[in-house]
Amino acid sequence: DAGVIQSPRHEVTEMGQEVTLRCKPISGHNSLFWYRQTMMRGLELLIYFNNNVPIDDSGMPEDRFSAKMPNASFSTLKIQPSEPRDSAVYFCASSFPELYQETQYFGPGTRLLVL
Amino acid sequence: QKEVEQDPGPLSVPEGAIVSLNCTYSNSAFQYFMWYRQYSRKGPELLMYTYSSGNKEDGRFTAQVDKSSKYISLFIRDSQPSDSATYLCAMSPNSGGSNYKLTFGKGTLLTVNP
C-alpha cells in the first residue's frame, strides 16, 4: 500500500489567499484525521471523520478553516483567507477499526508558509 | 498545566547508549499510552502502545506506564544512529468512543552519534 498520500508537500502563499490541502487515506481505513504541528503547540487534532462524516471538529481554530470528505478516498482542508499564523505542517492520518486502540497512520505532511 | 508534558531536549548520546525518554500527564482519564517516532520532514509513525499500567517490550524498545505517578517512559537499549528522530508520547482516554482523541507531547529530539 502507498500509505496516506498528501498534496501538495510544500505550499507558499500570501496572506489572504485560499489554501487547499488534499489527502488520500489508506484504502479500507474508515477514520480520517487532520492535524497541525507547530513548534509552539506541538501536534494538535483539527478534525476527525468517521465513515466520511465529521465527528469532532472542536480543534478547528476558527471559521477560516473548513474540511470535507466527499468520499472514502479523499479529503480536503481549506483555509480561507490564510494568515501568517497558519504557517505550520499539516498532517492527515487514517485508521481502521481495531479491537482496542486504533493505530493512526500519518501522511508525510504539507508544509505551509503564509507570507 | 498542560495535559501532557515532555522535555523537548535535544538529547545527544553515543551509539550503544541506553536512552530514557519521559512524559508526564495530568488527565487521569488517559488509558492508552503510545510512543510515536518522527524522522525529520516525515509524519509520525507508531512505535509502541500500552494499555493502563505496566511494561511492554519490543526488541530494543521498552515502554513503561506508571498511572499512579502519571508518568510514562520509553527506553531504547543499544541505541543506533538510525534511532535519531523526534519521539512523541501520545495518550487517549477509553471512554465513550473517544479513544481516537490523541493528546501528544511536543516531542523530544534524539541524536545518536556514531
Blueprint of the fold:
The complex is a heterodimer of chains A (115) and B (114).
Chain A lengths: L4 E3 L2 E4 L5 E6 L6 E8 L3 E9 L2 E4 L8 E7 L2 E6 L8 E8 L9 E2 L3 E5 L1
Parallel strand pairs in A: 2-11
Antiparallel strand pairs in A: 1-3, 3-8, 4-5, 4-9, 5-6, 7-8, 9-10, 9-11
Chain B lengths: L3 E3 L4 E4 L4 E7 L4 E9 L6 E7 L2 E5 L2 E6 L4 E6 L8 E9 L9 E2 L3 E6 L1
Parallel strand pairs in B: 2-11
Antiparallel strand pairs in B: 1-3, 3-8, 4-5, 4-9, 6-7, 7-8, 9-10, 9-11
Main interface by residue count: A-B, 24 and 20 residues
- Strand content of the residues of chain A, in percent? over 45%
List the helices and strands of chain A in order.
EEEEEEEEEEE
Count of helical regions of chain B: 0
Rg for CA atoms of chain B: 14 Å
- Spans of at least 5 consecutive residues with low confidence of chain B: none
Order of helices and strands of chain B: EEEEEEEEEEE
Biggest beta sheet summary of chain A: 7 strands, mixed
Largest sheet descriptor of chain B: 6 strands, mixed
Notes on the structure:
The complex is a heterodimer of chains A (115) and B (114). By secondary structure, chain A is an all-beta fold. In chain A, 0% of the residues lie in helices and 54% in strands. Chain A is built from no helices and eleven strands. Chain A has strands spanning 5-7, 10-13, 19-24, 31-38, 42-50, 53-56, 65-71, 74-79, 88-95, 105-106, 110-114. In chain A, the strands form two sheets. In chain A, strands 2, 4, 5, 6, 9, 10 and 11 form a seven-stranded mixed β-sheet that branches. Chain A is globular and about 45 Å long. With 114 residues, chain B is mostly beta strands. Helices cover 0% and strands 56% of the residues of chain B. Chain B has no helices and eleven strands. In chain B, the strands form two sheets. In chain B, strands 2, 4, 5, 9, 10 and 11 form a six-stranded mixed β-sheet that branches. Chain B starts with a strand and ends with a strand. The model of chain B has no long low-confidence stretch (mean pLDDT 92). The chains are: A mainly beta (115), B mainly beta (114).
